[in-house]
Model the fold of this input.
Amino acid sequence: MSASLSNLKPVVKLFLTERRRGLLLGAALSATTVSAGIALLGLSGWFITAAGIAGLSAATVATFDVFMPSAGIRLLALGRTASRYGERLTTHDATLSVLAALRERLFRGWAEPGAARELARRPARLLFRLTGDIDALDSLYLRVLVPAAVAVVAALASCVALGLMNPLFGLAAGGALLVAGLGIPLFAGRRATKHARRRTYGIEAIRARAIDLVAGQTDLLMAGRLDAQRAAIADADRYAASADDCLNRIEACVTFGFGLTTTALLAGSLLTVGALVEAGTISPPVATLGILIAFAAVEPFGALRRGAMELGRTLLAAGRIAPRLSADEDVHRNGAPLPGFAFCMNRVSASYDASTPVLHSVDLALKAGEKLALVGTSGAGKSTLLSLLAAEMRARQGVVECLDVTLLTQRTELFQDSLRGNLQLANPDASDAVLHEALAAAGLLQDVAALPRGLETQLGEGGMGLSGGQSRRLALARLFLRDTPLWLLDEPTEGLDGATARDVMTRLADRAEGRSLVIATHIRREAAIADVIAVMEDGRIVEVSRRGEAAFEKALNRLRPD
Done:
């Protein structure tokens, strides 16, 4: 539990950094609302009792002042309404603003090169971090921090008010409120943490398995696993429902505990004020005031009931988000190479985890303006080497020095946006003329010009609306908009027909004139434009040959033909 609570520190720090004034104002208005409610109930009880007693005698009726108490009641009623409205407006506005800032910070964090690669490896799970986990954090302020602060303020105010009648009475009532009012939610929160976590895991499993069922139903049907997938979703639903049942039972116990506390406090207050009235220390109207204050003081603690049930979910969400908030925000960059070189790698080793090395002591360099083809079987380490050059991952050992790069991955990443929006990801300030030039260089300008809306044509999710060849050309045009001295390409024509692939490579070679180029490939047409070929096996560079050498032609001949 202590480790989980420590994860709240960066989240609370973000809350206070983003909207400190709004959050504190919301808490103050909430405390004002509760205090006004307690005072309103107590004063109303005093006024009714005092008026009833005054009505027993004609002499007291004439002297009893009904205007001041009634004015106070009206003032408290109006003040409570206004503060309640302001509290709702302020707390929700501040919370939504903080959650928006949290989403932006996490999105920017996951957009960094290394984090983006992890996101691509586990998209569904990390998507939940940006949705469910952030939504869970609204309970931290609205259902935990504010209700707890307001409850403590109400207990202290009640302690002071009752203490004016009798110091021991005030201390006893305040102590009972703090011990029982905070103790019950804390105990319930500890008991509910495990079940809240189970419920969160169950909901995530339902979402992930339902997505797998919808997206992969054809494959599941062909493999005969459709019924098994439906059963897996049902199992996850039962798991989440079981956790819900446990949480509901704990919440019922909390409600019973608060009811018992209220009853005990009222009984004790009734006996105490009765004794004080009998001793002549206080009057009957003041006794009514004391009983109603004690009764109303329990209400703010009831708001912690829902927070106690959400505490486990909130701590789990904070624990999964906090490491990203606490991470070093400095973007990893490679150092500059020696003059005349595009990149230099010296004794470089790399791995995705501590136990599985992917590259072993790689020594490789490329002169500025040259084109390099990385060839080898799948799993040889070509994509990992490109990731090191693009600074998307850090070398485990050795030094990587590289010019500014642009990486074109195997997968064409297009978004549900216009053609213009997809292109301007590479260059937000590009004019239409520049965009048309890039499209022409990629061989896509005529296709775009034939569309009714041209650059404003909307694409579907993942670039839906374009053929495979058009999508690859659009990605190539986006590459052309990046004016970096080194381009990295990972199997740029994979999946394209021969004619389209040869046209893409011709255009790429023409556009890359004067730049350095690294192509990871196992296809001859892609390696044919290279000046240097490096052969990789099991994460090692086993051979480097230059154009004109026999080894160069031999390496080309081993590749898959066009």
Observations:
- The first strand starts at residue 341 and ends at 353.
- The two ends are 60 Å apart (CA to CA).
